[in-house]
Design goal:
This protein is of the alpha+beta class and 434 residues long. It has 2 domains: 268 residues, Acyl-CoA dehydrogenase/oxidase, N-terminal domain (Butyryl-Coa Dehydrogenase, subunit A, domain 1); 146 residues, Butyryl-CoA Dehydrogenase, subunit A, domain 3. 48% of the residues lie in helices and 15% in strands. The longest helix has 33 residues. The N terminus is likely disordered.
């Protein structure tokens, strides 16, 4: 869910006249959905990952995947989607089972592991890390629904994932009918929807027009191929459109009841500590982890290549070796240090959030506000870091396929996410501690 703020989100619901392609053609639509259908068919035949996989196994698997993700990152950026093979590898590693209950083959791991895996995947490809982070985090949204819905989604296929947009679209129409609703509307920024078997949308319903969450099969929607951003191009955050689709009553809930319903469902999965985490989760750092991982990866690339890198000395020619410049050393040390500080902050705060959940202690307002602040702060720090490294590379970084160029565009895009608004986070934090 790649949500922007205010007018940007509303504008997306209406459509963007400046986009090159407003929607897929009838000939293209089957192709857009074929990947999801094939992924669902293949995944259904797979057994769940080994229940013996540990938190350390997950982090090690993410680190082992970095070289492959780096090799594929330029293609992901150009194709505006991760490959089906990469998606399958994410599933095979057990990443989509990290935050699932044991009843459905899940590993019942914590927010701390989620953040660490996302940061490491982003070192290789930020879009791939984002797809993991979104689809893994959205498991929590499924857990807010009745056991009947959980069985419907994960019973046939423990690898099933959920994408969509939980921001209410006020222009959507949900008509109450016998046994459920008929839903019509469009929702933008549906990250990971290239592969998800299920979708979740927020639409007004009832006499008061309050937001309701609707869960429906991906096959009930059409893809609008409108994802042409400058950064995070491979996240598949396209608009999904539904037209007069029936959604049964058991897959519809008041949006404002989500937190309450999650607490009710704890009894269904009594050993799953992450059921005690806040929702939406700040301690998971779902978006900031991707930004920090991208800056981390950019710093690694620069360090690995600086020994053979040069820049033009001046307008008359000549060359300067970057590794011999005091200025470059000073600037890079600052940028790399900033990225590392942001990583350590995420690791500490995500661990603290996980420990609270493990102790079955709900976060206080001050803790939630601090985590929100630190989500924005770590992203802000990552942005400064990657921009600084970009300036050291010089004109070569203007090439769209350059790893530092891609990292910079990705972090800039992430920094606009609604949950990472620095001023809003700062105001809430001050109110909570004063």
């Amino acid at each position: 869910m790649f949500c922007l703020t205010g007018d940007e989100a509303a504008h997306t619901m209406e459509g963007d006249p400046f986009r090159a392609t407003a929607a897929t053609t009838p000939q293209e639509r089957p192709t857009m959905n074929a990947m999801t259908s094939e992924a669902s068919r293949v995944a259904a035949a797979r057994p769940a990952p080994s229940p013996d996989l540990t938190a350390d196994d997950m982090v090690a698997a993410a680190q082992a995947m970095i070289p492959l993700l780096r090799e594929r990152a330029a293609d992901v950026d150009a194709d505006r989607r991760i490959s089906a093979d990469t998606y399958r590898r994410l599933g095979d590693a057990g990443f989509f089972h990290m935050l699932k209950p044991k009843k459905y083959g899940g590993l019942e791991l914590s927010e701390h592991e989620h953040a660490r895996v996302a940061m490491n995947l982003a070192r290789g490809c930020t879009s791939t890390a984002w797809v993991f982070s979104i689809l893994s985090s959205d498991n929590t949204a499924i857990l807010a629904f009745p056991e009947e819905v959980q069985d419907e989604i994960w019973g046939p296929d423990t690898f099933a994932t959920l994408a969509g947009n939980t921001n209410m679209n006020p222009k959507a129409v949900a008509e109450k009918v016998r046994g459920g609703y008929r839903l019509t509307g469009q929702w933008g920024f549906c990250s990971g929807s290239d592969f998800s078997e299920w979708l979740i949308f927020n639409a007004p319903a009832g006499d008061d027009g309050e937001g309701h969450m609707f869960v429906l099969p991906h096959s009930d929607a059409e893809t609008v191929d409108d994802w042409y951003p400058t950064g995070m191009r491979g996240t598949g955050s396209r608009t999904m459109s539904v037209s007069d689709v029936f959604v049964p009553e058991h897959r519809v809930q008041l949006a404002k009841d989500t937190v309450h319903k999650l607490k009710e469902r704890r009894a269904l999965h009594p050993t799953f500590d992450t059921m005690w985490a806040t929702w939406p989760s700040n301690g998971r750092f779902p978006f900031a982890s991707c930004a920090v991982g991208a800056a981390w990866g950019a710093a690694e690339h620069f360090a690995e290549t600086v020994g053979t890198s040069t820049r033009v000395a001046n307008a008359l020619g000549g060359a300067v070796r970057l590794s011999e410049s005091d200025y470059v050393a000073s600037e890079f040390a600052q940028a790399q240090g900033d990225a590392e500080m942001a990583r350590l902050l995420i690791e500490k705060r995500s661990l603290q959030a996980s420990e609270r959940a493990r102790a079955r202690v709900e976060s206080t307002e001050a803790e939630v506000a601090r985590d929100l602040r630190d989500n924005a702060l770590s992203t802000r720090t990552a942005l400064r870091s990657v921009q600084q490294i970009f300036s050291l590379v010089g004109a070569k970084a203007g090439n769209a396929s350059h790893p530092v160029s891609r990292a910079k565009r990705d972090v800039e895009m992430i920094s606009h996410h609604v949950t990472l608004n620095w001023r809003q986070g700062a105001v809430r934090y001050l109110a909570a501690v004063s």
